[in-house]
Structures are given as structure tokens and as C-alpha cells.
Amino acid sequence: MVVALILLLVAIGSVLFHLYSPWWWTPIATNWAYIDHTINITFWITGFVFVAVIAFMAYCVFRFHHKEGRRADYNPENKRLEWWLSVGTGVGVAAMLAPGLVVWHQFVTVPADATEVEVMGQQWQWSFRLPGKDGRLGTSDVRNIASDNPMGLNRDDPHAQDDVVIENGDLHLQMGKPVKVLLRSVDVLHDFYVPEFRAKMDMVPGMVTYFWITPIRTGTFDVLCAELCGAAHYQMRAKVIVDEEREYHAWLEQQKTFAELSPARAVVKATYQSGGR
Amino acid sequence: MVDIPYEGIAGIPPAEVPEVELYHPRSWWTRYVFSQDAKVIAIQYSLTASAIGLVALVLSWLMRLQLGFPGTFSFIDANQYLQFITMHGMIMVIYLLTALFLGGFGNYLIPLMVGARDMVFPYVNMLSYWVYLLAVLVLASTFFVPGGPTGAGWTLYPPQAILSGTPGQDWGIILMMSSLILFIIGFTMGGLNYVVTVLQARTRGMTLMRLPLTVWGIFTATVMALLAFPALFVASVMLLLDRLLGTSFFMPSLVEMGQLSKYGGGSPLLFQHLFWFFGHPEVYIVALPAFGIVSDLISTHARKNIFGYRMMVWAIVGIGALSFVVWAHHMYVSGMFPQFGYFFATTTLIIAIPTAIKVYNWVLTLWRGDIHLRVPMLFALGFIITFVNGGLTGLFLGNVVVDVPLSDTMFVVAHFHMVMGVAPIMVVLGAIYHWYPKVTGRMLNDVLGKFHFWVTFLGAYLIFFPMHYLGLLGVPRRYFELGDTAFIPSSAHSLNAFISVVALTVGFSQMVFLFNLAWSLFKGEASGGNPWRATTLEWQTPETPPGHGNWGKELPIVYRWAYDYSVPGAAEDFIPQNQPPRATQLVQGAAS
Predict the structure, then answer these.
(1) What are φ and ψ of residue B475, in 5° steps?
(2) Is the bond preceding residue A212 a cis peptide, omega within 30 degrees?
């Protein structure tokens, strides 16, 4: 029976494609291997169901296709069978959902020792900010944005003065150190997306969103924008470089702080205002 | 489930409401153009939806040309690419699938299947179509206005949708919102009709639990649409005000092209919640009619009652209700309150259970059937495969943490095309092959039909199955070109080229189908009134195609459920719903 055979081949072909195709996820670069494990569990369960349903269907087509004199059974319901199938499906669903929720709990629970970095999106480029020596990011507001203050930092905030501002450059992260990535946009939605990190999150104007990661291998990774942000969405690129501790600090030494980048007058004013506190 | 005792003609109550005099057309114009007959309105809806659907098909070819062979076609630039994806998505989801299932199949089948003469409000039904046509014309006009159609993506997320960095910011987005508002007004008029007709105009004996599943699917989807579309209506009006009057419902303080804008205080996430409060039920507004129709195709062509009818009805109703509490699974990485993840992942995966029951019952209907592999049945089998595939990948995306790496990649594109593109369209095509004889009195050509099925089904599978793996690799969606990206190997570009070639092939095979539709209208084999030997009422009309008022002098009386196929002891392998028990027994007597 040709039709039954083709249906079966669709199922078998899909499994073979899954096993042998060259397209698979990128080698992971963060602690989120848990996410990959959950995807694998989901592949196993759904793959089993897919093959079972298609194979059963192909068998029915093979065994019960119309022949002269065949008459179908009259079989309106089978409560027992329907309940067993429902319960079995429920178990399969729970087996995927439970690990998923556990890992989601980890995903939204930022460790206390995570350092912060800020990523800012705008049409169509990325800017980055590190907290500087005081370990705190200063406040910011889109209303402060000016040609000499592209990230809109608050000049009156002492915590902002030592913030490291990286415009049109690459972001470096330190191997093995948990980091909370704070995400902000000044115009439209963007999404800070590094496939090797597995984590991603939209950046929404008017809000600060976040995710956290611990980099587990060094390397240079492409940053893409994953939320449609207008005409040059596809060109909104940057790089993230994960360094060993020594290289990371060597890079950090070379970066300029907000105060260093600001016109002298503004710095004097800021120093004056914050000096009393 | 033969719930009426065979001797019990007393179980049929007398008509409670006297028949209302039908509106009778007096001229060619009121018969064929400004018609109040649901069957004519159905054909008007279907032709309009198909026409704008062809535009969406051509747009998909242009997109695939760009994705498969970037840099080759100088007439496609980045702005146009975004306009293509936006218009393709919006047309397919709303102006084609929603309009075709509810306005097309709903109008044609509901009155016939429940044994009514027409919809209960024929004049409003007519208005519904003309407002829909206006919505389609407004939408199509955006191709010709300065700046072209909007390129904001079919989700139209602000702030991007109404700012100057997005193509179509001038006229395109204004007309898009206007068109959506018109569509919803038109749909509401039709939708109220479908609901009231199913509830109030069923013929004697047609209890709710004797309705064919097609009617259950369309009815439930319509109720859902009446509840879900208002959210889109509100979002559209607010976005239009933000764009035209400079209000800030969805617009926070932001910088537009280097300048601080006048906006402030609005919430982009509010739009997303409103959009998906509509958008997720919308998936099932398309899926439930498909579920219902495919149940009837399988049952008829396997000559077997649908397995577990009551469970099927409750699954439709349950899915409809649950689909209103899962919307934020489209927003796991939107930056919303993270604790929502637990709730929406749980509800989303629970919806898999009634959905799985439906799949089991379809394949169990095949078990020990008498399967006629005619074209509608082939499309039904194709639907099961693509729907199971697309439904299972939904378990990846619904499971909040698994969605994090996959969202906004080609995995999502592959998933939703498989589950709410290919699968429902398999049903639409199967349904056209199934009911074309009733609409025209002629059969569609079988050889062309089988060719059309195999190219469409295998082709669509070859397009969308490998696409999941591009997404798994990390290839983002809505990208004009991938450029030089370290993690994307050259083999992925080859796969994109392959997908494009298959997509063009599948697209062109639809021309064979269109030819078949036109050719068979004049040259097709005469079908008679009930070529598939089906039980439901629309096949029992005195004339084919059914005349104005559907039933001649007397409305049919219904004595049994819709699935009396291969009843043991009966002479024929089907018993129409309106066949009285005594007649059946006589036939049985004659057979024995």
C-alpha cells in the first residue's frame, strides 16, 4: 500500500533527519546546560509520540483501506481507553513541565554574588556599561540623552561618574563569574541575543529587564538583535568576548569612565554636587 | 451513541416557533451581489479570502527568494522584506484563514448542517460580507500609498510600529489599523449570526449533541472570536490614537531618530498583552473549525462513526476555554513579570491533553474502518501528520524555559507554519474537495486532486520540518539577510536555498488546484446530491446545489446523531440523520 508506506517514511525520515542532519545547537558557553537537557527530554517524549501516532495511522491505512466487501466496525466510544490515553498524556506532559519549571526557577533567581552589566539597545546599535569601582550603576533617563551623553546617564548621580561606558565597542565578560545582564532600550523593542548563551530577553523602552548567566568558556560570540526593531534590524550586531580573569582586567583598565568621557564643566558640576554627601 | 430509542419518534418535539417568511430576492443584483442568502455570502467570502490569499502566496515567494538567494534580487530591499513578512502574516491569519473558516465554511455549512433555511439575521449577514470586503480593500490599498504597507511585523508591536525607523510609518500603519477595525466590525455582525443560528434555528430533533463536529468547531470558534477580537479592537484604536493624535497608551518616553519624542507614560507591554489576549485564541479560532471539519472528513471517508464523539465535543469546548488563559506564552522573553512563567507554562501544557485526545480519536476512528483514500481523506491524513508535528513542537515553545533559546528564531516560524498554516490549510483543501460537489453539483478532477495533494503535503513538510533545525541552531527570524555570522555554517545557507526551491514548487502546484476548480465547474463529472454517501443534513437537500431556503417545502426532521456509518444490521453503510427509524427497520427487514 503506497500511501501507508509514504506516511511511514515521513515518520522514519523525520527521525533520521533529527539524528544525522548537521544542524544542531551551538556549543553552549554558559551555565544553562539545564535548558539543553530540558530540550532533550522534550525531544525524546515528543519524538516517541510522533512516531507512535504516525505508525499507528500508517498501519490503519495499510490494514483497513477499502476493499470490496469490507465493512467498518460500529464502535462509538470506549471510556476505559479514552481515560487511559488521557492519563498517559498527562504523565508525559508532567515529565516535560516539571523539569521546565525547576529550571525556570533557576533562570529567574539571580545569585546574590552576580555582578551587574548594562546593555542598552537603540536603532541600530548596542552600548554597554559596567558599574566601575563603586560596584554600582548610576541612574539614567532617556531625557538626559545628548551627543556627549549617549546612554542618558544622570550627571548628578555620583554612582554614574565611575561607570564604564562602551559605545560602539565590544562587551567583555569574565569567565566563571555570574553576571546579571540589565537590559534597557531608548527607542523601540530590541532583544539581546547570543545563541551560545541560551538566555535572551527583550529590551523595552521605559523598563529595565534582565537575565543572568555564568560564562563557562572563553571565546568571541556574535550578538544579534532578536526582536524586530525596524529597517536595519538584521544589521544590529556586536560581539561579546569571554576572557580569563587576567585578560578581562587588562581590557577593563583601558576603558573610559563616564566622567572621563564627559566635558569638564559637567564633571566639575557633578563633583561639586556630590561632594557634600 | 445512539441516544434516541429507535421506536421513539415521540422523542422529536413539535416545532416551537413557526417558520419565518424568508426574504426573497427580486432582481439579479439582490440574488447574486447584495444577496442575503448565506450560501451566496459564503461564496463571496471564500472568493474574496482566496483572492487576498493569493497575494499572500506571492509575498511568500518573494520572501523565500530573498532568504534562499540573498543579494541576488536587487528588486527586494530590507524595507520591502519587512513589508512582505508583515502583510503575508496578517493576510494569512486574519483575512484568509479566519474569514474562510467562519465567513466561508461557517456561512455555507451552518444553516445546511443544522437544518435551517438561512442564517437568522440575513441582512446583517450581508452587511458582514461588505464590511469585510471594505477591510480587504483598505488593506490592499496600502501597497499603493506613499511609503507602502507597514513593515512592523504582523504583531505590530509599538513603539516600533508607529515610529519612523519602520517602513510604512506614514500611511501603511494607519490603514492597517483601520482595516483591522473594519474587519472586526464585519466579523462581529457575521459571528453573532452564526452563534444565534446554531442556538436558535436548529431543526426539530437536532439536539446539541447530535450536531456534526464541523458545527461544534465553527460554533465554538465563533464564540471565542466574539470574546477575543474586542481586545484587538481596543489595541488597534489605541495604537491609531497614539499614531494620529500623539496620545501615549503604549508609548513611553523615548528617543526617535536621535530626538526626544513627545511621547511619555505609556506601556509597550500593555499592547502585547492585549494583542495576545486576542492572538492566542485566534490560533484556536483557526484550529477549531479545522478540528471539526477534519473529524467529519475522516468519519465519512472511513465509513465509520467518529470515535468518542462526546469526548470530542468536550475537548473542543475545553480547548476553547483554556485558550483564554495561555496568551502570555507568547511573551516569555518580553520582559513581563517573570513569575507569570510558571502559570502560563502550566496552562499551556495542560491544553495539550484535550488536544492529544482529539488526535487519538481521529486515528482510532481509522481503526477497523473502511478507509476510502479519496482526495479529502488524503488531506485529512496530511492534516494529522502536520498537526501532530506542529502540536508537539508547541510543547517546546510552551514550556517557558525551553522557549528562551528558541523564541524569535526560525524554530518558531517553522512551528506556527506547521500548526496553524499547513495543518489548517490541509483541512481547507480537503474540505473544498469534499463539499465542492454540493456547492456546484460537479466533482473535482481526481487525478489533479491527488497530484495537488502529494506535492502540497510532501512539499510543505520538506519546507517546514528542516526549518526547525535552523532555529535550533539559532538562526533568527525576520532577518533580511544573515550576513557574516560565525555560528551559521554555509550548509545552513544551502538549506535555505533548498527550502526556497521547494516553496516555489508548492506555490506553483496551487495553480493546478485553481485550474481544477475552474475546469471542473464546467467539465466536472456530475456529482448527484450525495456522492460520498454521507449522513449529515447538507447532503440530503432536495436540490444540489441547494436552492434558496435550502429545504423545499418541509424542514427536515432529525432522528439520530451525525455518525451512523456502518450500523450493524443496516442495509447501507450510512443512515442519514433525517431518516426515520421506521424506514431503517424496513430496510433492515429487507436485508435480512
Answers:
(1) -65, 120
(2) no
The Cα-based distances of B258 to A152, B160, B212 in angstroms read 12, 15, 59
Instruction: Tell if the CB–CB gap between B345 and A25 is shorter than 8 Å.
Output: no
CA-CA distance, A33 to B583, in Å (whole number)?
68
Is the backbone of residue A65 left (phi > 0), alpha (psi -120 to 50) or beta?
A: beta
Inter-chain residue contact B159 with A205, CB threshold 8 Å = yes
Distance set, CA B409 to CA A227, A233, B328 (Å)? 10, 14, 18
Q: Where are the alpha helices (DSSP H) in A23-150?
A: 33-64, 79-108
Q: Tell me which of B301, B361, B402 to substitute to probe the interface with A (most A C-beta atoms closer than 10 Å).
A: B402
Question: How close A125 gets to chain B, by Cα (Å)?
Answer: 12
pLDDT band for position B588 (cuts 50, 70, 90): very low
Phi and psi at residue B332, in whole multiples of 5°?
-55, -35
Nearest CA to CA, how far is B203 from chain A (Å)? Answer: 24
Cβ atoms of A107 and A197 closer than 8 Å: no
Distance, in Å, from the CA atom of B317 to the CA atom of B586, rounded to the nearest integer, reads 38
| Residue B582: pLDDT over 80 | no
E runs forming strands in chain A: 115-122, 125-130, 164-167, 171-174, 179-185, 190-193, 200-203, 209-213, 219-225, 238-243
The owner of cell 510543547 is: B395
Give the gap in angstroms from C-alpha B399 to the nearest C-alpha of chain A: 6
Cell matching residue A195: 545563541
Contact residues for A29 (Cβ-Cβ < 8 A; gap 6+): A194, A196, A197, A215, A216, A217, A219, A221, A242
Question: Taking CB atoms and an 8 Å limit, are A237 and B483 in contact across chains?
Answer: yes
Q: Are B132 and B124 in contact (CB under 8 A)?
A: no
CA distance B248 to B234: 14
DSSP string over B517-530: HHHHHHHSPB--S-
Beta bridge partners of A223: A238
Tell if the CB–CB gap between A207 and B341 is shorter than 8 Å. Answer: no
Q: What is the pLDDT of residue B187?
A: 96
Name every chain B residue with its beta carbon within 8 A of the beta carbon of A231.
Answer: 78-79, 82, 151, 165-167
Q: How far apart are CA A238 and CA B33, in angstroms?
A: 58
The nearest alpha carbon in chain A to B315 belongs to A86
pLDDT at B592 (0 to 100):
37
- Alpha-carbon distances of B284 from B50, B189, B583, rounded to whole Å: 20, 20, 40
Query: Chain B residue closest to A62 (CA)?
Result: B371
CB contact under 8 A, A189 and B333: no
Q: Which residue of B has its CA nearest to A47?
A: B392
The CA distance from A243 to A249, in Å, is 9
DSSP 8-state assignment for residue A65 = B
CA dihedral angle for residue B89, residue B327, residue B264, residue A188, rounded to 10 degrees: -40
Please report, as a single letter, which amino acid is at residue A52.
A
pLDDT at B1 over 90: no
For B400, the closest of A81, A100, A232 (CB atoms) is: A100
Q: At B585, is the pLDDT very low, low, confident or very high (cuts 50, 70, 90)?
A: low
Q: Count other Cβ atoms within 10 Å, centred on residue A91.
A: 10
Rounded average pLDDT per 10-residue block, chain A, 277 residues? 94 96 95 94 94 97 92 89 94 93 95 95 94 90 90 91 90 96 96 96 96 96 96 95 95 89 59 46
